């Protein structure tokens, strides 16, 4: 299919066009491993999405930008057809064969190079060390933090136990309260007995190397959603490691993914649960904005404890067990028993999960956006003039929302986000503003990683062109408050701020992107909730932190000892979010960007 826009003409393959609309475009590639992208480079060997494959290819074979024109040509703005909905890019209805890229009269001429050297001339170079090839990058990774720093982070000054990952290439002060995976797995957190890693995209060899040497042979269970060839490849990766076993999550509904990201860490001293947003690959812990919630160290209960012993006020223990039981996997029975044997009463967050299925009756309220709705009705305080309190969603991928907002976003999903207090009448949903935070093309171009950062933002043209109405809700990514404006977000967050954005009624960090596959969609006149994917997150509510006013204040600094009080929540990006300007475009991964270079002097051609 021929497409045309500000960046010239391009083609979209028929296989791309058939992408399932209800997915969030992160389903793994079913082709063989990334040999084409990394032949001879010693790059990572793991299954990933087509968007990430494109990013890895461009890192291995960058296309250098050259500001030369073969002819004066026509300014891009004049070549465009009428813009649709102010989206900033246009779609052609022509069925003609596309011109070759080399014949396009574009500003950039394609010049493929194997060099990983940074551009010395381009003014947007943010740092040099982010140019390292994959093989060298691993040697350059973060060492664990100083022992005292990590201990202080875990045990004081952060009542929410909410952290960001370290980012290479930003001012060091912005990493002072952040964690690398090596910190999480360090002996400071406990003397490891065994662990379970739940995730979507997994590089086995890399993961093993993140464990301290003394823990690398401890039993490790990997919970994944791979099937057929990709499952065989994952198992093959683990052959050198006798301590690794697998649990395949059942994905019986088409186009679902095992998207949950969780660690269960059993120590001699107790148990810890980590719920986060990063894949288990080097790239996700390097120059992206990611979120982590780390539980307290849960002590073992006295022998003979039964029933609800060790439960928290947030019902976290029972909810976690229910989530694990939904896998119906014998391999997880041992971990369910371990959780039963520990005291989780110090937990102050609510667990919010999605598991694949078609749910009716009271089961509908146990999962997805209806679970969020019930939690907010039962435990959030009603807000004066609450119709003026907007909702904010921030994510890294987008599924199909339908022909207009009434199909899902501004109906059932919004109704869940605006729930607050059981005695409050249902609002007219259209009265509540919705702010959606998703990176622009310029956000990606000017990022630490440059255009390849867009491989983790797999919003496709095929989905975007069907929902141009959605783009009027979009806001730019900006995170000056955490020093991460140039670290593209793979974190997913949702919240309910006050009209002046100085307070929030609640905050959710989760693996769930903006998609019906992740959150669920009502069917059969609202009597059934259908969910395709596994997702997991934690919800922060003021009442669970002893706050009676029904809101947190937004902290002025994300990393600061001054917000040790539970009154101040460290929202990791800038509020209020800034709406897209007339020239801003949402990042779409499967079209070329050749009019301007990224921070490494490169262009983006995904094919």
From TrEMBL:
It holds the Pfam family Tyr-DNA_phospho. The active site is at residues 259, 490. InterPro entries: Tdp1 (IPR010347). Signal peptide: none annotated. GO terms for molecular function: 3'-tyrosyl-DNA phosphodiesterase activity; double-stranded DNA binding; exonuclease activity; single-stranded DNA binding. Residues 100-120 have a biased composition (Basic and acidic residues). Keywords: Cytoplasm, DNA damage, DNA repair, Exonuclease, Hydrolase, Nuclease, Nucleus, Phosphoprotein, Repeat. One of its GO terms (cellular component) is cytoplasm. One of its GO terms (biological process) is single strand break repair. Substrate binds at residues 261, 492. It is found in: Cytoplasm; Nucleus. Belongs to the tyrosyl-DNA phosphodiesterase family. Monomer. DNA repair enzyme that can remove a variety of covalent adducts from DNA through hydrolysis of a 3'-phosphodiester bond, giving rise to DNA with a free 3' phosphate. Catalyzes the hydrolysis of dead-end complexes between DNA and the topoisomerase I active site tyrosine residue. Hydrolyzes 3'-phosphoglycolates on protruding 3' ends on DNA double-strand breaks due to DNA damage by radiation and free radicals. Acts on blunt-ended double-strand DNA breaks and on single-stranded DNA. This is Tyrosyl-DNA phosphodiesterase 1.
């Amino acid at each position: 299919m021929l497409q045309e826009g500000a960046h010239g003409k391009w083609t979209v393959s028929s296989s791309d066009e058939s992408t399932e609309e209800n997915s969030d475009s992160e389903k793994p590639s079913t082709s063989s491993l990334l040999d084409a992208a990394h032949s001879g480079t010693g790059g990572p060997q793991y299954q990933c999405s087509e968007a990430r494959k494109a990013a890895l290819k461009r890192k291995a074979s960058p296309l250098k930008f050259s500001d030369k024109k073969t002819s004066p040509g026509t300014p891009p703005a004049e070549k465009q057809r009428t813009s649709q909905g102010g989206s900033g890019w246009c779609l052609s209805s022509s069925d003609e064969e596309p011109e070759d890229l080399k014949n396009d009269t574009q500003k950039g001429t394609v010049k493929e190079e194997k060099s990983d050297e940074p551009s010395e001339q381009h003014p947007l170079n943010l740092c040099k060390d982010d140019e390292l090839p994959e093989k060298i990058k691993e040697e350059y990774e973060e060492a664990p933090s100083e022992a005292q720093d990590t201990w202080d982070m875990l045990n004081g000054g952060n009542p929410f136990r909410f952290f960001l990952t370290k980012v290479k290439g930003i001012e060091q002060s912005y990493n002072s309260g952040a964690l690398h995976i090596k910190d999480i797995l360090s002996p400071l957190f406990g003397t490891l007995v065994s662990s379970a890693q739940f995730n979507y995209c997994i590089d086995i060899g890399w993961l093993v190397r993140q464990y301290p040497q003394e823990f690398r042979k401890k039993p490790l269970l990997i919970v994944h959603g791979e099937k057929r060839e990709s499952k065989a490849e994952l198992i093959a990766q683990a052959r050198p490691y006798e301590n690794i076993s697998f649990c395949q999550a059942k994905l019986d509904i088409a186009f679902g993914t095992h998207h949950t990201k969780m660690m269960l860490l059993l120590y001699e001293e107790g148990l810890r649960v980590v719920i986060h947003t990063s894949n288990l690959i080097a790239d996700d812990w390097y120059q992206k904005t990611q979120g982590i919630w780390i539980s307290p160290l849960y002590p073992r209960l006295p022998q003979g404890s039964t029933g609800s012993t060790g439960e928290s006020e947030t019902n976290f223990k029972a909810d976690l067990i229910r989530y694990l039981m939904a896998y119906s996997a014998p391999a997880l029975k041992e971990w369910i028993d371990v959780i039963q044997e520990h005291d989780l009463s110090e937990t102050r967050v609510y667990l919010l999960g999605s598991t694949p299925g078609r749910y009716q009756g009271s089961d509908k309220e146990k999962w997805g956006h209806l679970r969020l709705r019930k939690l907010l009705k039962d435990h959030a305080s009603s807000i004066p003039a609450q119709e003026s309190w907007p909702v904010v969603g921030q994510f890294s991928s987008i599924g199909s929302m339908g022909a207009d907002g009434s199909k899902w976003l501004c109906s059932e999903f919004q109704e869940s986000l605006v729930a607050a207090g059981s005695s409050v009448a249902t609002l007219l949903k259209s009265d509540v503003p919705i702010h959606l935070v998703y990176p622009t093309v310029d956000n990606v171009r000017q990022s630490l990683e440059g255009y390849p950062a867009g491989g983790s933002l797999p919003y496709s043209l095929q989905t975007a062109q069907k929902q141009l109405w959605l783009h009027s809700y979009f806001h730019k990514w900006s995170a000056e408050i955490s020093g991460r404006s140039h670290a593209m977000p793979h974190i997913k967050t949702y919240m309910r701020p006050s009209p002046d954005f100085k307070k929030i009624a609640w905050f959710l960090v989760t693996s769930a992107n903006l998609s019906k596959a992740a959150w669920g969609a009502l069917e059969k006149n609202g009597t059934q909730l259908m969910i395709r994917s596994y997702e997991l997150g934690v919800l922060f509510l003021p009442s669970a932190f002893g706050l009676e006013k029904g809101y947190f204040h937004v902290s002025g600094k994300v990393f600061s000892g001054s917000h040790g009080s539970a009154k101040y929540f460290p929202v990791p990006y800038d509020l209020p979010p800034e709406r897209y300007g007339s020239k801003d475009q949402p990042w779409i991964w499967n079209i070329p960007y050749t009019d301007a270079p990224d921070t490494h002097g490169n262009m983006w051609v995904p094919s």
